[in-house]
Queue: 4 jobs
Job 1
Amino acid sequence: MGRHSEYIGIVVIWEFRLDELVLPGFGDLPRRLSPAGAGRTLRFATLGGADVARIMGSLHACKVHRDRLRFTANPRQASRASLNSAAMSESCGRYDVIVIGGGHAGSEAAAAAARLGARTLLLTHKRATIGEMSCNPSIGGLGKGHLVREIDALDGVMARAADLAGIQFRILNRSKGPAVRGPRAQADRKLYRAAMQRLLAETPGLEIREGAAEDLLIEEGRVAGVVLADGRVLSSARVILTTGTFLRGLIHIGDEKIAAGRAGEAPAEGLAQTLARLGFRLGRLKTGTPPRLDGRTIDWKGLSLQPGDEPPPPFSFMTARIENPQLPCHITETTPKTHRLIRDNLSRSPLYRGDIVGVGPRYCP
């Protein structure tokens, strides 16, 4: 081992405030620390590799910025100088991958990066809205159902979440050949959100943090991290943008225009400006949100019943059977009165008026 055999452990030097003294999962560790000087310094003396890993994880959980940490090897002989470990100091507090956005794409990207062993952070405005089905509360369909099952074959999470939240499952185009059939699930939005959040919380190596990404940290022409709206800087070797409808988002409701990522949530304006400054060409995609109907106002007796398949066909290859109670769908039709109402108000539609120029997916997800 040469020179390093003269060293017996690692010393972590951490400048801290008194209210940061408690480290989760360490129990008696504060009694092993020796405060030194103003501002106080913690010295974790003569630690093995397991202790070092615990310290790094614990300090990370306390959101201690890596610039406040220094790692040194403790010498066997008091007369020898400590050996600074620049590599460890650099790695603490640094992520391998930061994923911005907690929608469908962000959830899959974060889970995939963590499965590959990367130290991953999922950065989202609100932890409570991870897995939110803002638009269409269904998964799959023609073409899209194939994609969900391909994601599942790669150990993704969407299919498993759909199976945990689905309240009706059908194979579309069953009367046609296998190539054009498509699995589809109608999902309970609350169940899907809860299932996705649980699956991500159970993913080793994945941290979830609330925050608004305002800028990208660029060093020598490469991305090096994310700058948050509150000024914090998160270092990372890779940054994945899955901003969905939030990047310079704009909501149209009749004649009204609202800058928003979705109803009640602010758009990502700063990040859009960063991408433009870096030379990316920005465009717009469009999506439409179906209306939410109050079931208490619907005359169900006048609608055609459409039951799901029995037994319900799961999306995931790892789901043995669907446990949720299943519900039928109901089919209705427009009427001449509906058509007249639409024609009389086409001039108020932002799509027909020319306010919306972007193209978008047929449905989502």
Note: The chain is about 25% helix and 25% strand.
Job 2
Amino acid sequence: MTVINRKKRVTLAMVANYANVSKSAVSKVLLGGGGKTTKVGEKTAGRIRQAAKFLGFHPDWAARSLKTGKTNNIGLLWSLSYPHYATGIVRNFSSHLMGKGYSTTIIDSLSDLQIIKQALSGFISRKVDGLIFQAKGCAAHDPEIEDMLGRIENVVVVSDQDVFPAFSKIILDFDPAFKEILQLAEKCGRFNITALINDSEAFYREKFRKYSGNLKLQMSNENLNNYENPEVFAEKIVKQYPDTDLFFALSDLCAQAISSQIIENGREVPEDVGVIGFNDNPFGLVCRPPLASVKIDIDMIVDIALKIIFDNMKSETPHKRKYRIKAEFINRASSGLTEVR
């Protein structure tokens, strides 16, 4: 029976001895170190993690930082407001980084310039090993923000616009999805479209107008965040736009609230009014009718961003890269965009 002294700091060597593996293998699994030549199988990695948990191993990041010049911390600066694919982004980034022995400093930017600049100042002071930054709205064109990003290593910009040319970036391309929705709307005879896209999301408004063609397109500046609950919001929207054939909302929550309100008012979805959301939240599948939505591949954003950061960490001459991820229209019954009316 192994007796553990819980007051004594557990070292890599102790974990290696307990798991009957090399110290470099433990370093590879728990700290992301161990050198390029060290390879560890899944079964061995599992045994190492079990040993670390049993022994109570906790990395001494301060000592490691002094030794390597790295903080083993990656920053994530993202708006957690609508559209709510942000939740999945945060969860996936955190879990992936923990698996590589890194911690994550997450700051909700709220798409506010002052908060973004304060957060960037903090990331600069902490000397994070990398940063994933969502550039949207005014933040995507602010020269001070661009200058601050230049003082951080391994920055990946995620934006729906091709901005900040000095940095690696992932461009989220919503054109294909918006174009498909509006072309189908015209084909199916739904000519009165109301898009719930407020002024802070002006870029999305421009995209929608670009493909509106002969449709009558109305833009609502109403924001769910200004209401105590979705029901109050939906009641006002449905009353304000009574002639709408198709509602598009920048969140699935808004869209479902509107759908429920239309039905409560005695009309049918999608026979009388179509409804489309944004984010393709899993709950949309159990809505009645199932909720149509616009989907962006969250897993792909995470995989690409982390690949850029870790590839640049390994390289003596980091490279600037650009990727484009296309959004997809997930057409379900609530849209009514399946047949000519």
Note: The chain has twelve helices and twelve strands.
Job 3
Amino acid sequence: MITLITVLHVFVCFFLILVILLQAGKGAGMGVAFGGATQTVFGGRGAAPFLAKVTTVTAIVFMLTSATLAYFSSRQEDPGLQRRAQQLAVEKKKAEQDLAKKRAQEDKEDKAKKAAEEAAAKAAEQQVPESSPEKSEGAAPTTVPPSPTPAPPTPPR
């Protein structure tokens, strides 16, 4: 069906070009090039009404075949496109799964890191001796005695 419409479309295209070229323009067009006798071939009034009707019919057939071919082309499913769409869907699903696995792994690593930090903090608390000033509540804080020599005075300006 599509092949028949395509062949018809090609013939209509060439026929439309031929009919348009045979028409005389406002300044006589192609009719003058062949000697002016072309108007007697189609009758005493010339070819204008006949060629105008043929051009109109041919243009309508051309538009109909164009629209029909466009419709069939848009409705036709290409197996190659379907395979590509399936491949893209599989790749997208795989990428989403990989991303989910990566996020789960990162969450697991974060939890392990937090647990290790908490364990290290607890171990550090347990290693601090009880006699240190930080831990002893009743012990007096140790102070550094002042230096015996005062700083020299600054000269006036």
Note: The mean pLDDT is 80.
Job 4
Amino acid sequence: MTGNGADRKAAKELLHIEVWLNRVDEIAERDKEAYLGDDLLQEAGDSLMMKLGGAANRLSKLDVLAPEGVAWPLVVAYRNFLIHQYDEINRELTWLTLSRDLLSWKASLPGHFEASAAAVGEDETGPARSRNPLTARSGDLVRPVTRQEVGCSGRTSRGSLALATEVHRV
């Protein structure tokens, strides 16, 4: 991140994604039967997936390349499906997305999260990542790059979100 406004916006989006993926972890820690039997838990998962899709859309517009294993367009399509075809949601697929696909993002995004924390900066109380991920600071690590930096116009990674695959069939 170079410190401009777009970099700071991208960093904040990535830090929100980190928080939301931690919440996805909490849902995934429960078993499938608990998820399928709990309407509130399903709604929480939907909300997180919609938020992730909105953030992915904004990151794509900021030209932040998705790391290997993450595809912003698939997540955006997923969000749109959840919002506009809510009466057709397949809970088996949303469970797969929460318990498998989104958890795999955590393996792909840590460098982005650390670089984002460093780009956003440190508040007066010092490093506070555990309390507020938007005010933390870390050392120099891998940072997200834009399409312009690598000289391409398209995405470079592929994703496998279960529901996004289903969206294209509907």
Note: Residues 36 and 91 are 7 Å apart (CA to CA).
